[in-house]
Every structure is written in structure tokens, then in C-alpha cells.
Task: inverse folding
């Protein structure tokens, strides 16, 4: 009987029910999108780092492991690393931020190729002139660039000489010496990659290097990739919790307003139920069931919308942002949406449960 009342009440007010569910759905989408972005971007960064094919990663003192930029170290350090036992190849890059999270990477192509292997060119080829620029296929698609076009940054026009397959090192790459010159980083690099002659000796080589360079961050590729986790990015976790907090507030207000209006409209109905013997708990139960159905409907709508946002991000701005579907967050956001909705229904429910039956029946 109660379930039928709940369904009929929701069906009777189709527009309000749909808008309320969609409002809850938007908060679900917001949380899932942020979670998908954080994980997608970290996974993409880890994939590009892994495909460099290095065994050891070196960062200068004071540099964050997964920072976009930061302190640099002398380029001559590469010559020292080449002299160390067990080190087969060495390459260094300079990473310079441009706007937001967009960066450009400077490298010496022959040096990097000796360590990582050749880039796979989808169009064009390697550097020919001093201001040539290599871009990956994702950036080319997003920026609508082809070989021969120019890209402007650092107050210069750079000519696209080649488009490479996405997934290795960076989106935009220029000659290291030119990037050093235009950013006042002469003979400096941001990170150094090492290739060892026998991967089984990686731990021993790292131990020996750390004794000589105790202030430097020296990690195996496995250790380095383990840092690409949202738990290792405090600011990212804080941002996710801010979004969750906003979502809870939105859910609370939407459901609170919806249920309060519903109680006002159904004053006579509540009076009839009480006259027929319904206890305050029965009235609360009725509204709670409606609230849960609204929240679950909004949760399902939010999941569907998250697939749309995931597709849009990966289709239109893939070079800047990457998103994945975070299935493990589905039960979490369900709990958040239902909890926020029930919280918003508390006051309207108590108001309905306390209504006097006689006054409710006389309500116009």
C-alpha cells in the first residue's frame, strides 16, 4: 500500500520528479567526473613515463616526484652518470610549463632515441631546423595542427615538423638547447633517465648512486610509477573532497526544497492518512521512501551523464585532460546521494509527521 502511494505520488508530479532526480544526478556526475579526471590524468602520465623505457629516474634536490616543473640540475650530471658502472644510456630533458597544466619538453633526439628507441612518426619527421616542434597525435587532433603549421609559445613561432604516436614522454617536444636558451636555463635539465645494462642490477646501481648523490631523488621505474596515485597528490584529494562537500550541499537543498513543497501540497492527504490511523512514523516512512527513490533515480541519471562527460573530455580536449570511468566510485556516490537526500528530507518529514489531523483536513 505504502509503496503504491509512493509511486503514484512520484508519477503524479512527473516534471518535479524528473527535475529533482536530474539535480541529484548532476551532483553525482560532478563527483564521478572529478574522480575520473584525477585518475585518468595520472594514468596517462604514468603510461607516458613507462613508455620512455628507462630503468632509473633522477630528479634534482627539492623537486617533487610528479611535478610539472621545479628545480633543475646541471646538464653535466649526465656525463657523470655515463661513467657509472652498469649504466648503458643516459638522457636528460627540460620541462617548462606554458599555461595551466600544458608543458613543453626539451630533449636531444639522438640521445633520447639511444635510450628509449625511435619515436613512431605518423606524419613528418624529426627536427630539421632550430625552431622545429614535434607534437603527439592527441595534441595535433585537439589543436587541429598538421605538419608545416606553427604553434606559438614563449613569444616565438615553432614549426610542426612531425606528429608522433601519443603515449611517450610529452605532448610537445623541441630541441633542448633552444628551450634552455629561451627560458634562461642554459645547461640545465629537469630530469635524467638512465638505462642499465642488466635490469636485475637496478637496485644495486640505485643504492650506489644514492651514496654519491644523497640529496637527489633516484628511483627505479617501478617506484616512480607508484607515485602516480591520487593519494600522493594532497591538493588533488582536497579538491575532490571540496567537490563532494558541494555535492552534499546541493543534494541536501534540492531534496529539502522538493520534500518541503511536497508536504505543503499534500497537507490534506496527510490529514486523511492520519485520520485513517497512520502514525507519525508511517508519514516519515512514506516520505523517506520517496526520497530514496529520487536519490536512486538521480544516481542512475548521474552515472549515465558521467559516460557522456567522459566521452566529451576524451573526444574534445584529450591532449589537455584525460578521463576514465571510475566504477569503484559508483557505490560511494550512491551512499553520498542517498545520505544527502535523506538529510534534506528530515525537516519536511518531521513537519508532516507533527501535523494535526483536524487542521490538515481543514487545509485549503
Result:
Amino acid at each position: 500500500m505504502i509503496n503504491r502511494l509512493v509511486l503514484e505520488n512520484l508519477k503524479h508530479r512527473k516534471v518535479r520528479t524528473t527535475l529533482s532526480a536530474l539535480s541529484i544526478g548532476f551532483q553525482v556526475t560532478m563527483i564521478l567526473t572529478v574522480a575520473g579526471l584525477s585518475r585518468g590524468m595520472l594514468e596517462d602520465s604514468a603510461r607516458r613515463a613507462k613508455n620512455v623505457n628507462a630503468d632509473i629516474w633522477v630528479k634534482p634536490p627539492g623537486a617533487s616526484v610528479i611535478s610539472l616543473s621545479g628545480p633543475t640540475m646541471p646538464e653535466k650530471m649526465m656525463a657523470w652518470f655515463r661513467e657509472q658502472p652498469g649504466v648503458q644510456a643516459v638522457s636528460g630533458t627540460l620541462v617548462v610549463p606554458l599555461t595551466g597544466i600544458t608543458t613543453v619538453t626539451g630533449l636531444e633526439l639522438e640521445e633520447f632515441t639511444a635510450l628509449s628507441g625511435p619515436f613512431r612518426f605518423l606524419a613528418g619527421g624529426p627536427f630539421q631546423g632550430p625552431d622545429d616542434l614535434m607534437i603527439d597525435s592527441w595534441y595535433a587532433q585537439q589543436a587541429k595542427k598538421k605538419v608545416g603549421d606553427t604553434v606559438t609559445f614563449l613569444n616565438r613561432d615553432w614549426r610542426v615538423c612531425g606528429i608522433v604516436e601519443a603515449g611517450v614522454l610529452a605532448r610537445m617536444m623541441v630541441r633542448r638547447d633552444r628551450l634552455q636558451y629561451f627560458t634562461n636555463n642554459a645547461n640545465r635539465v629537469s630530469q635524467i633517465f638512465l638505462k642499465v645494462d642488466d635490469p636485475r642490477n637496478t637496485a644495486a646501481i640505485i643504492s650506489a648512486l644514492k651514496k654519491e648523490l644523497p640529496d637527489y631523488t633516484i628511483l627505479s621505474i617501478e617506484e616512480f610509477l607508484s607515485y602516480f596515485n591520487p593519494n600522493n597528490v594532497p591538493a588533488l584529494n582536497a579538491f575532490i573532497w571540496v567537490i563532494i562537500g558541494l555535492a552534499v550541499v546541493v543534494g541536501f537543498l534540492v531534496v529539502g526544497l522538493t520534500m518541503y513543497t511536497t508536504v505543503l501540497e499534500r497537507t490534506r492527504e496527510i490529514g486523511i492518512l492520519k485520520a485513517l490511523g497512520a502514525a507519525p512514523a508511517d508519514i516519515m516512512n512514506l516520505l523517506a521512501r520517496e526520497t530514496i527513490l529520487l536519490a536512486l533515480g538521480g544516481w542512475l541519471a548521474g552515472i549515465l551523464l558521467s559516460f557522456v562527460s567522459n566521452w566529451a573530455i576524451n573526444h574534445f580536449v584529450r591532449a589537455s585532460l584525460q578521463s576514465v570511468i571510475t566504477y569503484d566510485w559508483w557505490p560511494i556516490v550512491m551512499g553520498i546521494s542517498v545520505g544527502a537526500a535523506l538529510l534534506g528530507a528530515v525537516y519536511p518529514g518531521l513537519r508532516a509527521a507533527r501535523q494535526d489531523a483536524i487542521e490538515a483536513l481543514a487545509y485549503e
User: Anything to note?
Assistant: Residues 7 and 213 are 69 Å apart (CA to CA). Residues 2-44+233-361 form one domain.
